[in-house]
Amino acid sequence: MHFNGRRWLTVASLPARLATPRLGAVLAQGPADVWVGGARPNSGGGSTQAVGHWDGRGWTVTTLPAAASRVHYHLTQLVPDGTGGMWAIGQCASCDPTPSRLWHEHAGRWSGPFAPRLARHRWILFGLAAAGRSVWADGAVDAAGISGLIALWGPPAPSSPPPGAGPPAGQCRRVTIRPRLREDAMAARLGNITFDCDDVLRLAGFWSAVLGRPLDQGSSKYFASIGGADPQRQEPAWYFNRVPESKQAKNRVHLDLVMPDPGAVDELTRLGATVVGTHEIPGGSHSWTVLQDPEGNEFCIADKSFTGA
Q1: Does residue 274 or residue 183 have the better pLDDT?
Q2: Non-local CB neighbours of 49 within 8 Å, separated by 6+ positions
Q3: CA–CA separation, 87 and 104 (whole Å)
Q4: Biggest distance spanned by C-alpha atoms of the chain
Q5: What is the pTM of this model?
Q6: What is the 3-class SS of 138-179, one letter each residue?
Q7: CA 77 to CA 86: how far, in whole Å?
Q8: pLDDT at site 85
Q9: pLDDT at 161 over 50
Q10: Which residue has the higher pLDDT, 156 or 56?
Q11: 102 and 87 in contact (C-beta within 8 Å)?
């Protein structure tokens, strides 16, 4: 079927090899360049996957390499790879442990099926995104509970392909499984950072200069804020609240700032901070400086984020 902006039209009847009740993969790249994916049940069980191409005059149908005997894979997505070829996903709801397969086409030739090896975990792929000679896939894997899955297919090793060559059939070069959250886990986000202080405007002004963000309108000697007026803010607001008591001990929680400028510490002291000390991980992979703001709140600054290495 084709919608021309006013009504639906029947373009042409599908070939028998694509005439499945569950035709689910369609890729339209122009009025005379349409691809569809389907499958035909086999008499002995399973099915044969096929992809058809409409060139404006008729259909050309290609059978995909067999996935497995007596197993029905339903093609659900066709994605161009950016080199003139495409990728296809096939799903099998009844397969265990691997219900998804991938195929790749270039210059009229299909290769596959293939998929990541995840021991005997049950997993499924939902979508593809092609990037040159590689393709990313997202999905889920049942490994002691449902977890997110990201997989990368690409050439077995970096190389210079011959002119006109498309991506190879591919190997699964990288798999990332996002740890599963507990069913009762919260998903809170950091909304505000709040300081109790003696001199609200002095401390708020210091952090405003450090962050390069202005104080909100209405800030006073009793309460001030940075970024608190935007209910849709994507980064935490900073609040400064006047209290009668002064700071009594070292902070048990502190801020870590990152700024690659070698003159950052000098600028912080010019704004009113005090240097407490400098530290370095043995081996020199990471170093940082500990400072105090104008009211003695400890914070650190480094030229890069700490990654544990």
Answers
A1: 274
A2: 37, 38, 39, 63, 64, 67, 73, 75, 88, 90, 103
A3: 5
A4: 84
A5: 0.48
A6: EEEEECCCEEEEEEEEECCCCCCCCCCCCCCCCEEEEEEEEC
A7: 10
A8: 81
A9: no
A10: 56
A11: yes
Q: How far, in Å, CA of 20 to CA of 247, rounded? A: 73
Which residues are within 8 A (CB) of 34 and not within 5 positions of it... i.e. 6 or more apart? 26, 27, 28, 53, 54
pLDDT average, residue stretch 277-305: 93
Domains in the chain, CATH or no CATH each: 2-178 (no CATH), 189-246 (3.10.180.10), 249-309 (3.10.180.10)
Q: Burial level of 168, CB count in 10 A (0-12/13-18/19+)?
A: middle
Contact between 242 and 264 under an 8 Å Cβ cutoff? The reply is no
The amino acid occupying position 290 is V
Number of C-beta neighbours around residue 187 at 10 A: 5
Structure confidence by residue, pLDDT tens digits, 67-115: 655 567 778 888 888 777 888 888 775 665 557 788 888 877 888 777 7
**Encoded amino acid at 235, one letter:** E
Cis peptide before 262 (omega within 30 of 0): no
